[in-house]
Please model this.
Amino acid sequence: MDNFCMMQFFEWNVPDDGGHWERLAAQCKALATAGIGAVWIPPCTKGGEPGSVGYDVYDLYDLGEFNQKGSVRTKYGTKAALRQAVQAAHAAGIKVIADVVLNHKASADATERFRVVEVDPNDRNRVISEPFDIEGWTRFSFPGRGDQYSPFQWHFFHFSAVDRDELSKRSGIFKIIGDHKDWAQTVDEEKGNFDYLMSADIDYHHPDVVAEIQQWAIWLIQTLELDGFRMDAVKHISQHFVKSLIDYIRANLSRDFFVVGEYWNADEERLNRFINESDQEIQLFDVALHYHLAEASHQGRAYDMTQLFLGTLVATNPFRAVTFVDNHDSQPGESLESWVSAWFKPIAYALILLMRDGLPCLFYGDYYGINGGEAGKRDLIDPLLHARMHLAYGEQTSYFDHPNVVGLIRHGDGQHPFSGLALIASTGDDGTKYMRFDPSRAGAVFHDLLGHCDEHITLDAQGGAMFTVKAGTVSVWADVQWHSPHAG
Model:
């Protein structure tokens, strides 16, 4: 598919009805027609309770097949329905990217007794106790699955830390003592060392753990015929392990395999360091751009739009940047809430979908709506997706030269008839901006695909024109000879 675009096909509050995989299968043809080339699906492994979103991962091998933690199905459905959804996606020409959670395990089957030291939650390198014994939730025996797919069972020595002591009935960060036990050093430096995030933290110094996760990764990819991974919380996982796992996967597959990591840090220098040190093809989500979009949406005309892309991953490393407006963590009420205001969403999506750089990711909650919250904006986003698929080609000239009225030109190419477009957005009043295509397009007539401006604009002898935009909106100007599926 030209101008590949990914969609995150879930939000935090999708119904706990076991029907999500069926919803995906039913939408695949429409998504492909709209211009979606890949779907990022939620964690499909069994979590700690029937309604688990999946980030409290319990059993990596249970895809909704075994009666464990209160149900056979996951929140999203059964393994059989998941396989059918993947097949439907592939039949529609859509790749499937699975969300994998490899930082921790939760909802253990039993406690074990072992020795720890407690560390300062704000500086994990600072020990605040003498060694002592605790009862921690580290025994994973998977009684509902048994040895099917893998006989591996987890014990305390497979983890680096836990957050609960059942002997004293209190919470904290308890670092496990043992041979070769220490925090991973190639993790984010926040809190001194951000190896520990939650629950029972997996220790990737342990060779048996590494071998088990490698085996599981290949099993999952082959079982579901996956096209890629979205790796959760990579800032908390040994970077050496992340690199070795991706190397192992690609060495054992005879096809391309896409990997995007969630490294939640707004410092693009830190993201680039992770990419460079990984020494392989891995994408990262552009967290800095997300925060800039959120800030612009909250400040309105007070935000200087000339600074929107300053210090973003897409500006410094465009081939490794996955751009996004919002996701399940940034949506209202969630742990990283930083929601982009509704009025600004069309501007934000026009930018990430139509600019040359970055791989854009569309959020389910923005497209279909948030269950119990904001309505979807499918009618606003579909024209942008179609413009991306048919028109957003060729070189780009940027006009980010005004604090409120900004724009860009995509010059088009020879492979897509009438391709090229002019994007202009205003975070203040009605605005105009002179922008120029090539002189070869002199005399071409353009109209606003989004319908905010009614007039037609004719390009001058230099291929330029004064393009217009209404206050607080975005307009996408295209050659009238190209017929948009959403025109009129």
